[in-house]
Amino acid sequence: MRNDIQLESIIEDYLNGKLNPAEQAAFEQLRSNDPIVDHKVVAHKVFLESMQQYADVLLLKQQMDAAHDQIDVVSLSAQLKPHSSRIVRFWNNYKSAIAVAASFLILVSVVVLNQNKQEGSFEALNRDVSQIKKSQNSLIRDIKANSQKTNITPAKYGGTGFAISSNGYILTNFHVIKDADSLYIQNNKGVSFKVKVFFTDAANDIAILRVIDQSFRNLGSLPYNIKRSSTGIGEPVYTLGYSKDDAVLGDGYVSSKTGINGDTLAYQIAIPVNPGNSGGPLLDNNGNIVGVINGKENKTDGAAFAVKSKYIMEALNAIPQDSLSKRVAYGKRSSLQGLKRNKQVEKIQDYVFMVKVYN
Question: CB 3.0–4.6 Å: which of 18, 28, 198, 343 could bond 210 by disulfide?
């Protein structure tokens, strides 16, 4: 208990900039090595911000009370006659109080909006391509597999998906593809393939796509497994997703066994994610898929959510047994186990795709 109190005191000094450079460096090293400490820092930062907002509201309430005491409500109606000089005198006498009242109303509105945003503010992570003005490369590359497809207009939405079989079945989020007229996936080499929706589970935000492009070639044995058991708080995890034209690695840990507002569908994870990450695989250090990224918390930096792997399993079990010729191995040793992170990423990048939605 004493150690917890000392840690909270150090965290507060750290957030308020009271640590000297040596202490700050040592604490940041501890934070990077200990995910529990890092989670406490994020939680305490949100707490301090909420307390500051509350203090601001109290201060303005006190100013409002003082302003109210300055105004003689009984004589107010007598002063407000249709005579310009009296109106001017009234404004001059009470303009400071009126300004305080106006600022109070504005601040209260902002605080209420922030509180509503903080309580259950879930943001899906499909990417609105039409709003992206600049990129190092064109977001949608020319389709190399078949030259007659190069006249396809740019996709409107983007997300991520990953292979659940070697013969062209791709898993993503339902919210990524729900409004699609046509769908394509694009691999890490910039080659695109037409797909169609094969299975959807809107309640669990899962969709399975099937490649219908004749130019698609078998991917070979999948390097990862789907984890049957739950994942604990503090367990290191990572994701690979298309938040831009090239795949982006996100690294972090599981920070809660429930999602936003205690939702048992998802894990909360401490990984920075962006629009386009929806549908990306969430893996542990042993190469097991423990979830699929589907959203983030608007209020808290680094708080993202991933649908748990048990719901991936439920989706796969709902598919006819003869549909997937080579399904993901369950309960067997992943070929990623024991490899360093960069080597794991090298192996999985051929199995993770950009999902492009046209409508």
Answer: 198
Closest CA to 145 of 103, 99, 189, 106: 189
**Helix 35-70, helix 2-15: angle, nearest 10:** 60
Question: Which residues make beta-bridge pairs with 172?
Answer: 207
Place of tokens 């909270």: 8
Residue 127 in this model has a pLDDT that exceeds 90: no
The secondary element (H helix, E strand) that includes residue 237 is strand 236-241
Integer Cα distance of 352 and 280 in angstroms:
7
User: Who's near 58: CB < 8 A, 6+ residues apart?
Assistant: none
* pLDDT for 175: 92
pLDDT tens for each residue of 274-311: 888 999 999 999 999 999 999 888 776 778 999 999 99
Measure the CA–CA gap between 154 and 281, rounded to whole angstroms: 25
In sequence order, which ranges of the chain are alpha helices (DSSP H)?
A: 2-15, 21-33, 35-70, 73-79, 84-118, 174-177, 309-317, 341-348
Side chain identity, residue 55: A
67-75 CB contacts, 8 Å cutoff, 24+ apart: 67/96, 67/97, 67/98, 67/100, 67/101, 68/97, 70/94, 70/97, 71/97
SS3 257: coil
Assigned token pair, 209: 């796509």
DSSP string, 137-195: S-SSPPP-S-GGGTTPPPPSEEEEEEESBTTSEEEE-HHHHTT-SEEEEE-TTS-EEEE
d(CA 51, CA 245): 40
Contact 157, 127 (CB under 8 A): yes
Q: Are 299 and 121 in contact (CB under 8 A)?
A: yes
